[in-house]
Amino acid sequence: MASTPTGPRAVGEEVAGPFSWYRSFTPQGRRAFKGAFGGFALDSYDFQVLPLSMVAIAAYFSLTQAQAGLLTTVTLVMSAIGGILAGVLIDRVGRAKTLMITVGTYALFTVVCGFATSFPMLLVSRALQGIGFGGEWAAGAVLVAEYARSRYRGRALAFIQSSWAVGWGLAVIVSTVVMDNLDPAIAWRVMFWTGALPAVLVVYVRRKVRDAPEVTKRLAEKDARVPLSSIFRGALVRKTFFATLLATGVQGGYYTIATWLPTYLKTERGLTVVGTGGYLSVLITGAFCGYLTAGYVVDLLGRKKSFALFAVLSGGLLLAYINIPQGANSLLLVLGFPLGFCASAIFSGFGSYLAELYPNAVRGTGQSFTYNVGRAIGAFFPTSVGFAAGSAGVGGALIYGVMGYAVALVALLGLPETRGTELT
Question: pTM for the whole thing?
Answer without folding.
Answer: 0.76
